[in-house]
Design goal:
By secondary structure, this protein is of the alpha/beta class. It contains five helices and seven strands, in the order E-H-E-H-E-E-E-H-E-H-E-H. It has one domain: Response regulator (Rossmann fold, 3-Layer(aba) Sandwich). Helix 3 packs parallel to helix 4. It is globular and about 35 Å long.
């Protein structure tokens, strides 16, 4: 980002507080505005209040299916990029993620350098 640019907003959605906080701190350090949600209802409320540029979304939220959430975000606003996070990469195939409208899938544990590259590509 350059000095006059409005900070981009990332919504980090994960039910694991420590990971969500780590990612929020990391993105804040890179100059992003960061919103957080730990569950589906909080995610829904956040999307009603603001329009993030990117949603970093855990596929396996308790009681919520991340693939279906990604599809719903895409239907609502196709300009919002979604990056899925999963601890089970065999469950989230590339075809399934593309069909959901997600830009990419990253595996947990999160490698910040890889995530940073994916994030930059998504926001180009």
């Amino acid at each position: 980002m350059t000095g006059g640019d409005k900070p981009r907003t990332i919504l980090v959605v994960d039910d694991h507080d420590a990971l969500r906080e780590e990612l929020a701190d990391y993105f804040t350090g890179l100059g992003f505005t960061v919103m957080q949600a730990g569950d589906g209802p909080t995610l829904s409320a956040a999307l009603r209040l603001a329009r993030p540029d990117l949603v970093l979304l855990d596929v396996d939220l308790p009681g919520w299916n991340g693939i279906e959430i990604a599809e719903a975000i895409r239907r609502r606003d196709a300009s919002i990029r979604v990056i899925l996070m999963t601890g089970n990469p065999t469950w989230v195939s590339p075809a399934l993620s593309i069909n959901s409208g997600a830009f990419a899938v990253v595996e947990k544990p999160i490698e910040l350098s890889r995530l940073s590259r994916v994030l930059k590509a998504a926001l180009l």
